[in-house]
Fold this sequence. Notes:
Elements: H1 2-30, E1 46-52, H2 54-66, E2 73-77, H3 89-92, H4 94-102, E3 107-111, E4 120-121, E5 127-128, H5 133-152, E6 156-160, H6 168-187, E7 191-193, E8 209-211, E9 217-219, H7 230-251
Parallel strand pairs: 1-2, 1-3, 3-6, 6-7
Antiparallel strand pairs: 4-5, 8-9
Helix pairs in contact: 2-7, 5-6
Amino acid sequence: MAGGEAVRGSGWLYGGARLIARVAMLAAALGLFAVTTLADPPPGPLTIVVFGDSQAAGLARGLQRVLVEDSRYRVLNRTHAGASLVHEESEWLAPVRRFTANDKADIAVVMFGANDRIDMPDDKGGYLHFRSAEWHAAYVSRVDKILARLAAAKLRVIWCGNPIARSATYSADMGYINHIYAEEAAKFGAQFVPLWTVIADDQGRYTAYGKDRDGTTERLRGDDGIHFTAAGYEVIAEKIVGLLSTSAQNAR
Length: 252
């Protein structure tokens, strides 16, 4: 009798095990016990680094203000006030070389030229006169050094041209320099962004006043007729921000 009960008990245990196994198989088929995998972490903010002179510095600060509440972007200011491509490399190439060797970014915004309408020292103790063929060749070489360094670091480059100024002579010189930037940027696959009439009257002429980001008329150009006010730099920054979505896709 005890032996028979033992046999019946064993049969019940066996049947129960089979039932559990079937339930487990069904649950697996339904995905109830599927392993949960963590989603890929979202990409970090798009890093924008700004190189250049005092105009670039104003633009960098404008970008920081415009994007302060947008977590998709991070703006790094690596400008050097007073920088000129006719001066030593420490002013214009060293910041680019230092950054690309030690840091990472997705997009580089570059703006030079405000201080460059002067003669350039040569390696013989003399000077290359502004607008001469020799000056042009030397200047092109320096622009190319920046573009080559940024291209090697695989940064998407937005090179900003200089805007119209109050002085007709200064404006003409900026137009000459802008032409160099546009040609060289195209050779390296960079994007040249003209700012000539970003703040101008309805005839494309210089004006100190215009609409700010909120549509309010106020002073947008500095007292020197060259630089911008904080509101003016924000207008330019907003123009650059409008290009970032396309640049971001290419940089990823």
